[in-house]
Write a structure and sequence with these properties.
The chain is mainly alpha-helical. It has one domain. The protein contains 6 helices and no strands. Helix 1 packs antiparallel against helix 3. The longest helix has 35 residues.
């Protein structure tokens, strides 16, 4: 893998983890309520579990950019994305589509199969960064490419999230 591609994915994941942690921390009570709705964690542990998730996401945002911790945190990121996908999948299986996903985006987002696929794709991207990187000379143009590519990934992620959030409304409009 080219080192620029690895850095683009790592920096985008870092930004995703950081914004997720900050949003959840600012509306912590709402995040706790959302996790409670999932009914996957014992009630007595819901608050510390919620705090641990926020802390983990914050740690991941730092860990994926540091070269000496990157592999561990990329593997951990893939695992957490997989856990998020499984939690959504379990609740979809239970028929509980109406609860908020807990992603803390700009709007509430009901559970859907699209969110499972999104999290699995993010896990795959994290795992892809574990592929061997072919060392090469780093050019000034690489830095510019990384900045614009991360910006493009952020825009694509936000657009896809908005489309996923609007799927129920689009279905209603079709009827």
């Amino acid at each position: 893998m080219d080192p620029v591609i690895e850095l683009v994915i790592c920096y985008a994941l870092a930004l995703l983890w950081f914004t997720a942690a900050v949003k959840k921390a600012f509306v912590f009570e709402g995040f706790v309520a959302t996790l409670r709705d999932y009914q996957l964690v014992p009630e007595s542990t819901i608050v510390p579990f919620s705090a641990a998730l926020v802390g983990m996401e914050l740690c991941f945002s730092i860990g994926v950019v540091l070269p000496f911790t990157r592999s561990f945190f990329l593997l951990s990121s893939a695992g957490l994305f997989g856990i998020y996908a499984a939690a959504i999948g379990i609740n979809l299986f239970r028929g509980r589509r109406y609860i908020d996903c807990g992603c803390m985006g700009l709007a509430q987002q009901s559970l859907s199969g699209w969110l499972v696929w999104r999290n699995l794709l993010l896990a795959g991207l994290a795992l892809a960064c574990l592929l061997p990187v072919q060392p090469r000379e780093f050019l000034w143009l690489d830095s510019i490419s990384i900045i614009f590519a991360v910006g493009a990934l952020v825009a694509v992620y936000a657009t896809v999230n908005r489309l996923i959030a609007n799927v129920p409304e689009l279905a209603r409009l079709r009827r």
